[in-house]
């Protein structure tokens, strides 16, 4: 975890507590080759260190594959998904987005929408609509978009609070919810933590991990995260700062 993820965690925690709701923690560990051993324990320890206690059991997506399979079958039965043979290189050549950008962010050119060309082998599975985005990758891993939609429904999620970097995912997830007959949660997107140039600060960009042992730095970091959300509190123990923040947020309702 880094400051940006702390902002997202604290923001969603505060919204849940201010509404007398439950705050759920879910490990999105579907991409098994990229999962770092022990990372889940470090994340949970960081949440506890910053006073962000969760409700119920921690859910691991890697243990819920059958749910995603069931959802994908339902989509396929209603002709709402199609097999795609396109590689990343194919999409870079054909996508409407510039070649330097991620093809997942571009509009799919529709190459396989009406069936595979002779000799072409299925790779990924795509949802029909909202850009024909991928719901199962070429390596067989279920995509974030489908997995979180299924999890939100099965866990009874009513409110989703997350960073603005996921804003483009929201219409895709709403499209999936409607296709599957699911409820649509209320969405709130928080301002991102950015550097001096305006670029998002994240783990891929070398963002510093949250301080672990220095209590003063923990307090200062949580104070900075709450201020980023727009809540001013007095520096104190994390639990006390969060109590102040919940009262502040509740008073605005």
Task: Describe this entry's structure for a reader.
The protein is of the alpha/beta class and 253 residues long. The chain is 40% helix and 10% strand. The protein is built from eight helices and seven strands; from the N terminus they run H-E-H-E-H-E-H-E-E-H-E-H-E-H-H. The strands form three sheets. Strands 3-4-5 form a three-stranded antiparallel sheet. A two-stranded parallel sheet has the order 1-2. Helix 1 (3-18) crosses helix 7 (215-229), helix 3 (65-77) crosses helix 5 and helix 5 (144-154) packs across helix 6.
Provide a count of the helices. 8
Order of helices and strands: HEHEHEHEEHEHEHH
Q: State which percent range the strand residues make up.
A: 5-15%
Taking Cα atoms only, what radius of gyration do you get, to the nearest Å?
20 Å
Number of strands: 7
Shape, per Cα inertia axes: elongated
Mean pLDDT: 90
Return the structural class: alpha/beta
- Tell me the major beta sheet: 3 strands, antiparallel
């Amino acid at each position: 975890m880094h400051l940006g993820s702390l902002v997202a965690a604290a923001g969603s925690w505060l919204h849940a507590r201010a509404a007398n709701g439950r705050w759920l923690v879910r490990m999105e560990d579907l991409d098994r080759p990229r999962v770092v051993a022990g990372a889940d324990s470090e994340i949970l320890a960081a949440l506890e260190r910053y006073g962000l206690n969760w409700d119920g059991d921690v859910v691991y997506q890697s243990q819920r594959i059958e749910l995603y399979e069931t959802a994908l079958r339902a989509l396929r039965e209603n002709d709402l998904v199609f097999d795609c043979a396109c590689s990343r290189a194919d999409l870079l050549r054909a996508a409407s987005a510039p070649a330097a950008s991620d093809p997942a962010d571009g509009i799919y050119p529709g190459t396989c929408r009406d069936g595979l060309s002779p000799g072409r082998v299925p790779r990924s599975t795509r949802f029909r609509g909202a850009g024909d985005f991928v719901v199962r990758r070429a390596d067989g891993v279920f995509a974030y978009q489908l997995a979180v939609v299924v999890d939100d429904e099965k866990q009874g999620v009513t409110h989703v609070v997350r960073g603005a970097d996921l804003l483009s995912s929201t219409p895709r997830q709403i499209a999936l919810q409607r296709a599957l007959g699911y409820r649509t949660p209320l969405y709130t997107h928080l301002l991102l933590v950015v550097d001096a140039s305006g670029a998002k600060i994240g783990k891929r960009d070398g963002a510093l991990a949250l301080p672990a042992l220095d209590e003063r730095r923990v307090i200062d970091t949580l104070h900075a995260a709450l201020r980023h959300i727009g809540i001013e509190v007095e520096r104190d123990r994390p639990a006390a700062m969060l109590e102040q923040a919940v009262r502040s947020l509740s008073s605005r309702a």
